[in-house]
Amino acid sequence: MKEKKKHTVLVEGPITAAFIADSIQKHSSKTNIGAHDIFLGQVRNDLISGKTVVAIEYSAYSEMAEEKFHAIREAAFAKYNLVCMHIYHSTGMVKAGEICLFVFVSTKHRKDAFDACREITEQIKALAPVWGKEIFEDETYTWKELNNGN
Amino acid sequence: MKEKKKHTVLVEGPITAAFIADSIQKHSSKTNIGAHDIFLGQVRNDLISGKTVVAIEYSAYSEMAEEKFHAIREAAFAKYNLVCMHIYHSTGMVKAGEICLFVFVSTKHRKDAFDACREITEQIKALAPVWGKEIFEDETYTWKELNNGN
Amino acid sequence: MEINLLVFGQLSDITKCSEMKIAHVNDTQQLIIKLTTQFPELALSKYSVAVNRKVVFENTMLTDKDTVALLPPFSGG
Amino acid sequence: MEINLLVFGQLSDITKCSEMKIAHVNDTQQLIIKLTTQFPELALSKYSVAVNRKVVFENTMLTDKDTVALLPPFSGG
Question: What is the pTM of this model?
């Protein structure tokens, strides 16, 4: 029952609530699932040196990123007892309040869901060649820096 | 910006994907949120002594359960840096494949979201006076038993 | 003096009733003895006792209109 | 002998170009020296080097049509 088909992680623009709902709904036919853990990254309107972030423009080294996402996926299936998992990451412009990352892990029991979702999210942040350009109200920008937990 | 208004956790029947989408969408106006962690409990079609579970009928000691949910919520706000959190738990009949528990934690940074969502979910399982009656195809039933991670 | 008794989950399969009034019990110990006499299977069951929505771990005095609940192990979520 | 160079994130602010062809470089070290001569600010920047989508940690031989990428610290999610 492990679903491991290769799919494209990078999607153009924000990830919508309707898309997330559709993904959740599709799992209602998989009645061996007991737990889902979903991580969503949302663009914050951080204040940086007195200017407010209104959007992040994401760019990626797409071919390498898809390979990394695939490797992260394979490693998660090898390590945890997953029924299925999906990752979606935005490219292009995502406004403050919109969602740029969607990690969706479904398992029989909740422990695997929690462990795997967190590890996958950390690996995406650490390993995926994706860059965020934080755009301010006045159209100037700064390149996003990842701290731990950011 | 902490949202702590008391709301009712127990909802009649399954939690729908549309309801979850609506909850996610409402958070797009809170642009200080950077991370959401969502736990969903889904009813499994477990095989128990040769019979397949087709639904779980949840009953609760409602007044006590709402007090416990409120205490869990207060403790989470005291311990973690949360922007907002919501819990919904079904009562009544929830079919296999449908969602019976929705824990939604929103934070500035992801560490708090992961830590709090997991702890809240464990506390709900351990502390909330809710019982699941597992209904089989032939309309017989057994009372659900929680093991760790179930 | 009468208390309100609530019975949940699998225990209601034993009592065949989820809510009842019980008179002439002064504390939780008397109540449990009375119930176990009426429903011997209760003695074999695992449960906690809540008085007015708080779980009690020791014998607890009861007053008129208190609500006592028998709570089998929780299995929500 | 010509390689394809990809430049990402803040490094493309320095090179003003995100994709270019570079001839006459036999290994990554020669490439970096050549780029740093052309774009001195690169010397002050933190980045990794990937050859054909794999990050390399030591000087690596290049062959015709290899793709080399300069990757500043990732900031996805």
Answer: 0.94
